[in-house]
Write a structure and sequence with these properties.
mainly alpha; 8 helices; 0% strand
Amino acid sequence: MTIAEAVGFAFPAAIGGTLGLLAAPAGVVYPAMILAGACEGALLGYGQSIGFGSVVPRSRWILATAAGAATAWSIGMLPSSLGGTDWASPWVLVLAAVLGLVLLLSIPTLQWVVLRRNRLRATFWIPVNAAAWAVGILWPLAPSPLIDETTPAPTLFGVYLVAGLLMAATVAVVTGFAARRIVSDAAR
């Protein structure tokens, strides 16, 4: 799963980095990043489905994961796409908190639907997965204060490649224990 997510993260990293270097307008960047996020999700779902084996139907799992990732990216890209937002407003902060929660729940909730359809009792998958992403997503956010328009392209891509690998490893380790439990329960 780590390799699949790391390769998957290369899509948004490369597309986002390239569009950033080209100073593409938000109207181009926003849909491109959602599509890149769906590609990332599809690869993540593929890697996870290998780990689950026959416990989950591969195509449904990949589709659910891609849809969840596209949803997460569509929410995650809003702050950089909405210029002039008053982030000190209490209503904006409440909306940001609600959308942040939806972002974290998007992938595991859609994956849980697939688990549930296969009669697997795995409600714990949602909070475990959301927690894994809450921690994992910090890696790609960490370099942001150190990166600007003067950062050389090779450095930019290298930094985010490492951040993507660390994110993938974090999510894989945390969710791996939950996935192992689901596979073990299904074998009973």
